[in-house]
Design a protein that fits this description.
globular, two-stranded antiparallel ribbon, 12-stranded antiparallel barrel, mainly beta
Length: 222
């Protein structure tokens, strides 16, 4: 089974617009990116044009939704004291006339996006199965938390905590994701390095997308 690019691209947007509270530099994050800030919309510049992300609540679940002219994407999240988990992913991709796909993915167990609290030097891993109408794919994620650093974006300069993760699948996909999160805002910048095959490898080899980037452009109060 081939997952399309939006699974990787917007997996890193699942906590955009969530509230964060950090201690001083290099200390533990004491607020677990919760509750969801429903009054903010985050606008990003990306390798695929402008992207808009909003969050909402649905009982015990957090729904994060992102859209642009080329994709629609949403995830159902479970936010616990020990981490942020993905329960379900929906995506629609339309990059070129011949690359259009709509799919919903579920997992044999909630996918660990990253653990909480976040401490510089902390590492995590997850492996499991992802299901869709096309079959089953084995997925492995490994990650690490780094110290906070200053990051310049179109929306301003922020002191952000840095995360790095690697996503691998049984379809020979391998992607290195670097993310920066800021107190009270969420994701402000992300970079994806495409190292494997699959649909991501196709985008790299045929369309030239060896690196895919997201950068916060604007914060809108709604």
């Amino acid at each position: 089974m081939k997952r399309n690019i939006i699974y990787i691209l917007l997996l890193l947007l699942i906590l955009a617009a969530l509230n964060n509270t950090f201690l001083a530099k290099n200390k533990i994050v004491i607020n677990t990116y919760f509750p969801v800030n429903n009054n903010k919309t985050l606008v990003y510049n990306s390798s695929f044009g402008k992207s808009i992300t909003k969050n909402s609540g649905d009982g015990d679940l957090t729904i994060t939704s992102s859209k642009s002219d080329k994709f629609r994407y949403s995830q159902k999240l479970i936010i616990k004291e020990d981490g942020v988990y993905v329960k379900e992913t929906y995506q629609f991709l339309n990059i070129l006339l011949f690359i259009k796909k709509e799919e919903t993915y579920t997992y044999n167990k909630p996918l660990l996006r990253f653990p909480l609290p976040l401490t510089a030097g902390r590492e995590w891993k997850w492996d499991g199965e992802e299901y869709s109408k096309n079959g089953t794919d084995k997925v492995k994620i490994t990650g690490k938390v780094f110290h906070k650093e200053f990051v310049i974006t179109k929306a301003g300069t922020f002191e952000a905590i840095k995360l790095e993760s690697v996503v691998e699948s049984s379809t020979n996909e391998k992607n290195k994701i670097t993310e920066w999160y800021v107190e009270g805002i969420g994701l402000i910048k992300a970079k994806i390095m495409i190292e494997g095959g699959g649909i991501m490898g196709f985008l790299r080899d045929i369309l030239g997308y060896s690196t895919i980037e997201f950068e916060l452009k604007e914060i809108r109060n709604t």
